[in-house]
Amino acid sequence: MEKQLIDDCFYVQQKKYGLWYSTDKEGKGLITALTEEECVKATRFYLKGLQEGWDDANIVKHEGTVGGKL
Questions:
Q1: Which of 10, 14, 37, 42 has the fewest C-beta atoms lying within 10 Å of its C-beta?
Q2: How many domains does the chain have?
Q3: What's the domain range around 40?
Q4: Residue whose C-alpha is closest to residue 39's, from 57, 20, 62
Q5: Which residues contact 21 (CB under 8 A, 6 or more apart)?
Q6: In a domain, 13, yes or no
Q7: Is residue 66 situated within a structural domain?
Q8: Is residue 70 part of a domain?
Q9: What is the pLDDT at residue 26?
């Protein structure tokens, strides 16, 4: 399948088994998704996070230990 340039920033292409795959302009793999729409949406979100930084205020942090006596 032919690659499509999106937002003059990244490429999306349908690959084996019908999955959609995005790469940056240098060919580095970014996102794999089930549909083209979700691949574009997730890639835009990911690239925005890389560029502007991630909002740590909305991240839920979990602890892997159980407090108290069992």
A1: 37
A2: 1
A3: 4-52
A4: 20
A5: 12, 13, 14, 15, 29, 31, 32, 39
A6: yes
A7: no
A8: no
A9: 94
Give the pLDDT confidence of 42-61 residue by residue, as tens digits: 999 999 988 888 777 666 77
Copy the structure tokens of residue 51: 């560029």
Burial class (CB in 10 A: 0-12, 13-18, 19+), 31: buried
Q: Are strands 29-33 and 4-6 parallel, antiparallel or unpaired?
A: unpaired
Residue 57's pLDDT is 66
Q: Is residue 30 part of a domain?
A: yes
pTM exceeds 0.85: no
> Strands (DSSP E) along 1-70, which ranges?
4-6, 10-14, 20-24, 29-33
Q: Pairing between strand 10-14 and 29-33?
A: unpaired
pLDDT digits (tens, 9 = 90+) for 1-28: 689 999 999 999 999 899 999 999 999 9
